[in-house]
Amino acid sequence: MISHASGGGPCSVRARPWPVARAGQRRPAASHVCARTPDQVVLNCACAYAVDQSMHAVDIADQLSRLPAQPTAALLVLRVVEDPDASPAELGRIVAMDPALSVRVMRLANAPHNGPGSVVHSAERAVYQLGFTTVKAIAAAAASTLLADDVRLGPPSYWIHSIAVASGAAVASDVLGIAENEAFSAGLLHDIGSAVLHRSDPARYDDMVAGVSPGQLGRAERELFGTTHPETGARALELWHFPPPLVEAIRDHHEPVSSASPLTQAVILGEALAERVEPLHLAEGSPRLGETVAALGLAPAHERMLVERTRSEIDKIAAFLGVVR
Which domains are assigned to the chain? Predict the structure, then answer.
């Protein structure tokens, strides 16, 4: 399936077209196919297919590169782009609050042609590494696409949940001894695989979520798509050379907290805090806060403090974005 092009550069791999399955036919066994991404702003090329043996293939990287920004973030980005006095810090703050925008800038910042020592763990850092002009172009393109096409990123609850978990993970970072901005990025992107699977077949994914029992989402995803949202999200970020700890946190955020890495623990605790503060009762289920706090060896007093700080952080972000909750 794969042929190598000469000349190197950001995209030095080409592929023959992926065969289209007709009615009644099965797709080939799982394989990885590289192709140039349609996102013309992003120079890095890294694509793969996660193949459902009985249904259809999900082009992970292509779907992820097409994810739209949310309306509020898109409008704020365009406002910053048009402001001659806007700062990189201001743009970085907005980008860091939107999963699709964060993926775009972190993907480019972690591209192989930027060098082996350029691992970027947060959207804010990516803004500084890439430069204000480059990030403005990426963000403006993503925002303009959203406003022109009126498209949305996954189910309506996705963005709210992502912001809430990011806030909880950032708060948890303090007691877990890890960097706050890295925890926020991991929390924001923890369910990016759900958005990819949803975008591949929105109606089917919505029907699946509507009919699944709490805590059974992973099993339903595997039956329908041949993969799960943690696997899908981790595979996409791995292909785009995101930092291994972040990839691990995305992949393992539904695993037991006691054996998880510190960054993964922040996401798991962040999800438990988010469900306490902003309960959405999602089909994937959420870890119980009390059990999670106990498993991490934290005192009951920590639980109350973490809840209040998470609520405060979510309120601040909602006010900044002008979101009515």
Answer: 1-66 (no CATH), 71-149 (no CATH), 157-321 (1.10.3210.10)
